[in-house]
Amino acid sequence: MNPAAENRSGLWVAVASFVLWGLMPLYWHLLKAVPSMQVVAHRVVWSTLLVVAWLLWKNGRGWLRAALARPRAAWMLALSGALIGFNWSLYIWAVNAGHVVESSLGYFINPLLNVVLGVVFLHERLSRAQWVAVTLAAAGVVWLTVNFGQPPWIAICLALSFALYGLLRKLLAIDAVTGLGVESVYLFLPALAMLVWGEAHGQGGFLPLGGAPGWGMGMDALLIFGGALTALPLIGFAFAVRRVPLSVVGLLQYIAPTLQFLTGVFVFHEAFDQQRLVGFVFIWAGLAIFALEGLLRSRRAARVMPAPLPAREA
């Protein structure tokens, strides 16, 4: 495949991944009758089976040993697995508790929080535009806190857990799908134990296995396919990020929270009054400055990059 075609295919795969992530609240809402922790446990179990099967097919039986042979990989992936498990649990609970709009706010904040963590832990320096962007986002959070009597905890916890997850994965520098596979292996047994305990005590309804009436075959199929919905966008993202400039990926990532926000307001009819709008506008303004500054910086870097030397003939 020529570079232009690879870039084009990577772009479409990236868009599809972010659209799928953005529309996921609609899917998790279909599982509203299932307790949130049961949904998370099923998500972990079925995504683990899918991701591990992919890695076995792609890298052979030694993939796990090779991944854990990296320095610090064992404990860092255990910690990142705990963070992503917490993130999934909070997100699914928030969606089915009627907090899709606030959840989307968390993923709008996330890129700016990544910048702050880069300054604190990686000693990166912010440009003036990035400081303005972070300040505007902070002002939006403060506005929402003052007007509603408490911080938007769901958004903050989602953003912080995912930003810390991203920091750990950046420090470890492991392939996205391989890292997800190791994290999934860590989470698999606790998730399976939770499901078995629930079925044994009549709190589950899968198939049904534990004597409970069951949720029905349609719901069981949705729970199983939820594992694929967990893994496929990340695999697509890993495919795309190698073929599309990171500046483009950085702009495309806002597709997901935008779709989540629109779903919360126009599909689930969640409250979004003028006071909330003011807070969101501060945050969106910060994101616009952040995205524009990143795009301009990448274009300047491309202009100063020396042209490749012509290949010598044999």
UniProtKB/TrEMBL annotation:
Cell location: Cell membrane
Primary residence: membrane
EamA domain sequence ranges: 9-145
Pfam families assigned to the protein according to its UniProt record, in alphabetical order: EamA
Keywords annotated in UniProt: Cell membrane, Membrane, Transmembrane, Transmembrane helix, Transport
Gene3D superfamilies per UniProt: 1.10.3730.20
Transmembrane regions: 9-28, 40-57, 73-93, 105-122, 129-146, 152-168, 180-197, 217-239, 251-271, 277-296
Topology class, membrane: Multi-pass membrane protein
Keyword Transmembrane helix: yes
Claim: Electron transport is one of the keywords in the record: no
Family to which this protein belongs: Belongs to the EamA transporter family.
Stated name of the protein: Chloramphenicol-sensitive protein RarD
UniProt source species: Agrilutibacter niabensis
Lineage summary: Bacteria, Pseudomonadati, Pseudomonadota, Gammaproteobacteria, Lysobacterales
